[in-house]
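Much of our argument rests on the idea that a fold can be written as discrete symbols. In the encoding step, the backbone of a single protein was reduced to a row of integers, each denoting a local shape. We regard such an encoding as a compact summary of how the chain folds. The record that follows shows the chain in one-letter code together with its fold in token form:
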Amino acid sequence: AMMQSYLTRPASDFEAGGVLLGRYILDCSDVVVDSVTVPMLGDVRSRTGFLRRAKGHQAAVDQAWLQSMHTCNYLGRWHTHPGGALTPSSVDTLDWTKALRKEQFDSASLFFVLIASDAIAIWEGDKITRALAQLERA
């Protein structure tokens, strides 16, 4: 619901984003996103970019991990393209590949959600190969 509030934003809006927090379901490949962070003081927002700089995003990840008795995980990132295409820019794909290479996470992949004016798309990035694949709607 929080990410959906960024649908149909005017094209003049600044990009927004945050991280995905949730759970992996045992004995299947399902993932549940329980919550997301939203732009915080310290993040850098512009018409064509969003940089997570606020330490609050990592604090939210740490708090969720502790409060959930180690079941709520960092799953990936989300950001918007207000009035733009539902296609990652070259900056996006470089950033996602860097996250797969440098960020600490226990799972086999991270998820990257992109929100444009009227739709949402999701990519999964492989931790080992760093390949990005857009997920199909079920």
